[in-house]
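User: Hi! I'm working on a homework problem where we have to compare a predicted structure to a textbook description. Could you give me the structure for the chain below?
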Amino acid sequence: MRILVTGASGFVGGRTVELAQAAGHEVVGLGRRRLDQVGYLSADLGRVGPEDLPVLPWQPDAVIHCAARATPYAKRADYDSDNVIATQTVVDWCALLGNPRLVHVSSSSVLYRDGDQLDLTEESPLPGDFANDYARTKADSERIVRTYGGSWVIARPRAVFGPGDTVLFPRIIAAAKAGRVPRLTGRSEPAVGDLIYVDNLADYLLRLAARPDLGGVYHLTNAEPVEIQTMLLEVIERLGLQPPTREVSLTTAMRAATVLERTWRLLRLPGEPPITPYGVGVLSWSKTFVPDKMLRDLGAPRISVAQGVDEFVSWQKERL
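Assistant: Happy to help. Predicted structure tokens:
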């Protein structure tokens, strides 16, 4: 196939390009950053119109739209630009490119609310209030994709991890180095959650690109929920970092995170706060997904969570 991958300079997009090339597809990657790579084009989808985008060497069979503002804390305007406006630009660009198959990478966070959520399905309703601006703008981007005149599908991955990760584990590892990771208490049972290893996600995106008969929404996970805090403590220990000894209740952590985030926004402080309500929620609330639709139509993931953790730890050790 001839495949265009947006967000190709990022974590998920970059790995999707690599696996697509390894599978023998012709691939063009598009990203915000300027990179000196063959088959890579640079453009900011949130700030240019479809007519101003680079000319492709061919008409794509499929577009995998990975480009997004995926950090847990950023300016609201940046989320709107990089997640909503950028998606509208991609949809309009696809119309100019002859309506290729569109695989849109959204996020399972569009469903999140405070509290445990077990066995979520593709039919689970979106909440009235979103967890943060990232979730809100991802939901908006899904609505845009549904207006596309060609073949489309929406992928909602859950907690992507692996070598190259810049969002999930690195923030926790940085906090662990600084001694800011506590053991959260206040639950009667450990929080459990689904994740997906980045190679499994890229595999699934390529399978969706090749299957125009599949549509609607797909939740993409490793189909093996884990105890979140136990897994994170294991990674911290394997990296030779000091495990947390200080205990903080979930209620206290959430209150502190809310105050910090509001202070950061009010004072327009640089960077992001040490903790956010969303970050506390990731460690504290159970979020699991029914994988039946994914397994039926796309098959089982080829790399287990344990194998993925091994790969991530090996990669991270080279950078400590």
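For your comparison, note the following. The two ends are 39 Å apart (CA to CA). The chain has one domain: 2-317. Good luck with the assignment!
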